[in-house]
Amino acid sequence: MNKLEVKINATKESSYPIFIGENLLENAYDYIEQYTKANNYLVVTNETVYSIYGEKLKSNNSKFIILPDGEIYKNMDTLNRILDRALEVKLERKDAIIALGGGVIGDIAGFAASIYQRGIDYVQIPTTLLAQVDSSVGGKVAVNHFLGKNLIGSFYQPKLVLSDINTLKTLDIRQFKTGLSEVLKYSFIEKSCKCEKHFNFLEFLQSNRTEIYNKNPEVLKKLINICCKLKSSIVNKDEKEKGLRAILNFGHTYAHAIEKLTGYDKYTHGEAVSMGMKLIFDLSLEINCIQEEYYHTATNLLKDYELMINLKDEFNHEEFYESMLSDKKVSDKKINFVIPIAPKEVTIKNNIDKKTILQGI
Ligand SMILES: NC(=O)c1ccc[n+]([C@@H]2O[C@H](COP(=O)([O-])OP(=O)(O)OC[C@H]3O[C@@H](n4cnc5c(N)ncnc54)[C@H](O)[C@@H]3O)[C@@H](O)[C@H]2O)c1
Ligand SMILES: [Zn+2]
Q1: What's the pLDDT tens digit per position in 305-324?
Q2: Residues 94/37, Cβ–Cβ less than 8 Å
Q3: What's the CATH number of domain 2-171, 3.40.50.1970, 3.40.50.2300, 3.30.465.10, 3.40.50.1010?
């Protein structure tokens, strides 16, 4: 079992541990009790995850709310349902919410915890690869609005994160690949993460593809550990996305437009991100920011992992551009691109002309 500490603004009270290991769900409350003072818990989960893992979280002090499964339920109505349930089971200020599920559950349960009685403790138990390497770390919590994704939310850190890699055994291949997309993203931004430790994550991914797809526990633990270290190193320095945190959006400027224009249900987030990353490598090559050798290394890695990289001819250029401009990351009508410039290194550029941006669309 690995344990790492996320330090927010280097203060002890907002720091929390991430445990990464096998069979953690079996003794979940042993960990939880060390980091919260709760007498009672409300476990927020969905039908799918509950049917596989719900039993493991049952205890005399736990009540459940089982939500329908899907991104479309990450909204204000569901948030209200969670708050109603918290009141119904008389959750008190020192009690805690436990988020058991993927990123959808983590985001909405964390947001509920941040506003229930002006904020109570919450625990992340991420059960998808995407949630274990990304959404459970960093404290961004939110729900969607019909005008856009994650438009209503806050920054609220959990008391601990319990990543049980055994849960990945039941994840289907499409969802596993969605997580891998974010994993590869870290390897392309590693040097720019300003992490004290250097991993050479790109090489790790190049040489462990089969082990990763076979879900080798040791390799998965290492992989999740590296991703969490890289993400927390960024979040430690820039909790509220004033600067450095923006590099986590590598590939996402294109991805968000792809997701929006296809109604958020044709492609998973990871599929949009892998297509977005390929587009950004193409863009970087086009504007001479990257050498061909690294371009091939990076795009070959995307291909080796059989991630989705080819866009269908399904987008209207004007709509695509408009959609990029309406992204909440846009400032002063300039689209900020996180551009690869050298192996594992990125920079931010916002002066790329429209025609070049749309070349690969
Ligand atoms: N807060 C952040 O920093 C952050 C970062 C990235 C993404 N997100 C959010 O995360 C969400 C996407 O998360 P996701 O990819 O985990 O999707 P998800 O939560 O919808 O989970 C994907 C699917 O896998 C199922 N599932 C979950 N765990 C399982 C398991 N162990 N075995 C079998 N099936 C399982 C779920 O029920 C669901 O059907 C989006 O809403 C996105 O906005 C947030
Ligand atoms: Zn993402």
Answers
A1: 999 999 999 999 999 999 99
A2: yes
A3: 3.40.50.1970
